Amino acid sequence: MSLRYLLFRMCLCLCFSFLINVQIFAQDSTLIVGGEKVLDRNTAEYKHSVRLLVEAKFSDSNDVPEDIRGKSTGWRCSGVIIETDVVLTAAHCLPDTILINYQGGQREVSVDINSIESFFRLSPRDDVAFGMLDSGWVRHESYQDDWLDRTSNVWNPRQPINDIALVFLSEAIPEDKEPVRWRSDLSNRFAPGQPVILTGYGRTLSTNPFELPELRKVTIPFIEDLQNNQEFYAGFGNSKNPRTITSPKGGCNGDSGGPAFINENGEYTLVGITVRGPGNQSGGCAASVTILTSVSDYVDWIGKRISRFSSDL
After folding, report:
1. pTM
2. What is the domain-level CATH number for residue 176?
3. CB-hemisphere CA count at 13 Å for 253?
4. How far apart are alpha carbons 235 and 28 in whole angstroms?
5. More confident residue, 252 or 207
6. For the chain, what is the domain count?
7. Pairing of strands 289-294, 231-235
8. Are 71 and 57 in contact (CB under 8 A)?
9. Which residues span the domain enclosing 211?
10. Is 27 exposed, middle or buried, given 0-12, 13-18 or 19+ CB atoms closer than 10 A?
């Protein structure tokens, strides 16, 4: 069985006429589990969070079955505003290839991203029909879609995964939204048990096939940094042997790229983005295991990519 079925990417696939079963909070993302809806638009959870709809098509390349070449597909992710026209999200939300279930088997196929729409409200009920389009995007150059198949320890890898990306907006964010403060110091790490607040538009359980993407939040404890020192684990579950627990809390499908904050004297600071957790065979979202990319380790990369994109305009 592929390692891709042992983890899930937190972003719900919205597939047309066939099922794409990719699990890592983005080609199969999830909503916040065990949390609550964000209802107050004056809170940091609302002001900084974004829902992303990635619209793509299957490539015309030979790795794609002829009967689906050129056909549309899409998925949703979450994101966080770091500049008035820049959203930070997960690299796996913007893939070159995805794993699909096709005619009873698994197949990795190429996709071409057409557009990325950003939505800013609490749910589709009070949002516009069409989101703000991107003017470009970039994911970390060292991120590989098939990293799961190249890694011996998927729960605690030694090598950097670099699951981080930027989406550049075609216009400024709405007036009731604002960029988040984010941590740039590498020396001040978390203390074990420190509360981390996650937000996202994912599902509330990975077993729910369709669920309205409403903004939710949940607080879970920081547990430890991973061996690569660029990711960390938060939650109540067992990251070494994940399985379903009672009263789980954490990220789920659709939360990929969503922010993780800490509350510093009443002010929210961005410390990470949600990237992955266990697949259904290991408890899924009910395992209460959320792995996040540490934002502070990518300060230089983020700054350089924003500057390069601005200079190319």
Report:
1. 0.88
2. 2.40.10.10
3. 25
4. 20
5. 252
6. 1
7. antiparallel
8. yes
9. 3-312
10. buried
